[in-house]
Amino acid sequence: MKHIGYFCSTLNHAYMIGCNRYTQCLLHQVDQMLSKDQAQWTLFGPTPAFSMIEKFLGRKAQPLELNQDFHRASAQPLLDLLHLLTDAPIPHLGADTPYIVTCHGVTPFHVKTQTESGRLPGSYWDYQDLPEAVYHAYHSEQILPKLKWLFYKRKILYQREQSLKKWFSVLQNARKVIAVSDFVKSEILEHCKIPESQIRVIHEAADESFGQVANEEKIQSVLRKYRLPRKFVLSVTNMHLVKNIHGQFALAKFLKDKIPAYKFVHAYLGSAYEERYLKIPQDFNVRHEVDYWLLRDIPQDDLKVIYQAAHLFINMAWIETFGLPIVEAMKAGLPIVSSDRCALAEVVGSGGITSAPQDQERFFSLIAEVLVNENLRQELIAKSKQRGAFFTWQKTAKETISVYEEVLNKPLM
Q1: What is the rounded average pLDDT of the residues 23-29?
Q2: What is the pTM of this model?
């Protein structure tokens, strides 16, 4: 029996998005495939995560706090293997602990290169979640705040540079690095200087329950709960400028002016910086719960029904290292119109339409064509379902276990 540790410090939010869903679904599926005689789990995470872990893990695992418990387990040969995520805080690793890392992207470097090349509008600092005082100093025209900004900028750059250097060191010393897309692999090779043989691309997936068809009564109940319109275009992303928030509200304006029968609905994960982004709709003369709807921290069971109720799914992101909501939309049988940036063209594949997000006129015309042409919409639904079947947690878990076996030099199944 092998003793495997999993660093699930990000599993602390009921709204399961991104790396949280990855942790939940991967652990559940890997645990289903491995018996108690093959592997024992030790899960390191914050105390609030433990009850959540017990709900989705098929058997008891040993949960430990992210403090001395982790340092003791990693510093001594208590673990045969440790699985880390780049989205988590950087742990202090013992020299004798073999580990692998799942990398969801090195976005800060991509933002920098894209803004410098002009492929991403604005400056590097426009895309940073700056604390409120720093944000206002950055945008001020007065001398004193500008001087403060120069001080903040130097401090923030140093802190982020040190953090990235630490993570690069973690990646370079990992036995294997799992990249969630070919795009992420290319970013790792460019910025981290890791041998290609050390990296394995293993795509994320979406739970099959997203494909379960909700009955009309359930759909109407959820629509009433959130006061949603009956016909709408759906987006599911974080509330961040790299997700092209301006473009999404421009779409709400386009629908209002050109196809008023359809509205725009955006489900998102709340953040400390969302207030500054919620002022953006004013620039497009669109009103909340009239022209667009914002749904914050929707429970997953309701989100599944909202996918089912939507007429079209869109993603206009400038940067996306995988795009898990796109796969969820495919499982739900939604037609897809997506940005072609970063990993999105790779994930969408033949399952939808991709277009450059900077060309809003073309992007919006594609959306309009799908909404008014039912034959095209049905054709895209069929392609979406077919492509969605490619992404399964069973496949992701099996490929992850093969990485475990390679590092441990022992078959587990």
Answers
A1: 85
A2: 0.90
Choose among 235, 232, 231: nearest CA to 316.
235
Cα 266 from Cα 65, distance rounded (Å): 35
Instruction: Give the pLDDT score at 68.
Output: 46
Return all residues near 201 (Cβ < 8 A) that are at least 6 apart: 178, 179, 180, 181, 182, 184, 185
**Amino acid, res. 215:** N
Candidates 89, 152, 87, 114; CA nearest to 242 is: 114
Nearest to 36 by CA among 2, 65, 8: 2
- Mean pLDDT: which of 59-73, 92-106, 233-247 is highest? 233-247
Is residue 349 within 8 A of residue 363, CB to CB? The reply is: no
Of 306, 362, 305, 367, give the one whose Cα is nearest residue 336: 367
Rg (CA), the chain: 22
Is the CB of residue 337 less than 8 Å from the CB of residue 376?
no
DSSP state, residue 343? T
Between 23 and 367, whose confidence is greater?
A: 367
Q: Mean pLDDT of all residues in the chain? A: 86
Give dist(CA 101, CA 86) in Å, integer: 7
Tokens matching residue 168: 């690069």
Which string of DSSP letters, residue by residue, matches 9-58? TT---SS--THHHHHHHHHHHHHHHS-TTTEEEEEE--HHHHHHHHHHSS
**Do the Cβ atoms of 25 and 393 come closer than 8 Å?**
yes
Residue 10: phi and psi, rounded to 5, are: -80, -10
Three-state SS at 136: helix
Q: Are 347 and 362 in contact (CB under 8 A)?
A: no
* Angle at CA of residue 62, ends 51 and 402, nearest 5°: 105
Residue 287 in contact with residue 325, Cβ under 8 Å? no
Half-sphere exposure at residue 289, Cβ-oriented, CA atoms within 13 angstroms = 7
Q: Quick check: 15 pLDDT over 50?
A: no
Backbone angles phi, psi at 295, to 5 degrees: -115, 110
173 CB-near residues (< 8 Å, 6+ apart):
none
In this prediction, residue 94 carries a pLDDT of 57
Neighbours of 318 (CB within 10 A): 24
Note the helical H segments in 226-372: 245-258, 274-277, 300-309, 324-331, 344-348, 360-372
DSSP state of 74: H
Tokens 């959820």 -> residue: 222
Q: What tokens appear for 130 in the block?
A: 């700056």
